[in-house]
Amino acid sequence: MSVAFLGIGLMGEPMAKRLLDRGYLKAVWNRTREKAERLAAAGAVVATSASQATCGVDTVCLCLTDSHAVEEVLFGPHGVISRLAGQSPPLIIDFSTSSPDTSRSLAHRYRQAVGGSWLDAPVSGGVARAGAGTLIAYCGGETAHFDNALPILGALASRVTLLGPVGSGQAAKLVAQLIAAPTLVALAEALATAEAMGLEASQLIDAYKDSLVDSPLLQIFGRRMAARQVEPRIGAIGTMLKDIDNALGMARAAGASAPIGAEAARVFRLVCAAGKESKDLTALIEYFTQERSRKS
């Protein structure tokens, strides 16, 4: 299999590196070339455009900021389809997170334009698990396309599940974010409260180990919050807000109620408004500690 990987960000870089190490990766492209150049040192070919990167490959992996970026990379002036005339269209595996409706719409446009196939496969697990190849992938698409993609998905994820037609993977990822986002807000609130009570937050996290309130989110993000560790970034405030907003839109369209998700979105929006949109998720605790300072 030959793969082009488009989008070399926090998650895209370690994912592309794994495909490179396994001999799948033919070329990479990123809007900011400097990020892609780090893979060039490991032997990757860095293309000057998305269309150049995808020429002659049978699979295109997308790991982009949002659906607008996906649309531009596919259908823009130098996008994927601009060089596909007369060629067999590659399978698109979209690791980006967007709404199910948007994913279905983009997949339909791609099929109508060049007859290509689509698999949405947003992932969970963070940067460390991306490098270890132990991500969790939620997939939507046809069974045949899923089966064809399994060697690539298996190089990146330890659990890969086909959940239904195109858009199903996006729906599953957004539901996961409805769990993760309020939990992160609750962690920041609780640890800031603990500190206000004179407790050592990191000691408290150790005390909670293996209890009913323990979780990977507590052990990973809680520890980073306690230490105010913001580098290296493992998730951005603005990216999570984008996902929550998509999740709330999905819930509204389905007639579902998500008041806890809406409250989490309110907190994330306030943190973004304070200029922390690109900051690590650890910055959530600053909102609560600053609120305490203002009230005192």
The CATH topology of the largest domain turns out to be: Rossmann fold
> How many strands, what sense, and barrel or not for the largest sheet?
5 strands, parallel
CATH architecture verdict of the largest domain: 3-Layer(aba) Sandwich
Order of helices and strands: EHEHHEHEHEEHEHEHHHHHH
Q: Which shape, going by the Cα principal axes?
A: globular
Q: What share of the residues lie within helices?
A: 55-70%
**Relevant CATH superfamily of the largest domain:** NAD(P)-binding Rossmann-like Domain
How big a fraction of the residues is strand?
5-15%
- Total number of domains: 2
Could you please describe the fold and organization of this structure?
There is one protein chain. The protein has 296 residues and is an alpha/beta fold. It folds into 2 domains: 3-164, Rossmann fold, CATH 3.40.50; 170-295, N-(1-d-carboxylethyl)-l-norvaline Dehydrogenase, domain 2, CATH 1.10.1040. The protein contains 13 helices and 8 strands. It has helices at residues 12-21, 33-40, 50-54, 67-75, 100-114, 126-132, 143-156, 168-196, 201-207, 216-227, 237-253, 259-276, 284-295, and strands at 3-6, 25-29, 59-62, 91-94, 118-120, 123-124, 135-139, 157-162. A 5-stranded parallel sheet has the order 2-1-3-4-5, sandwiched between helices. The chain is globular. The mean pLDDT is 94.
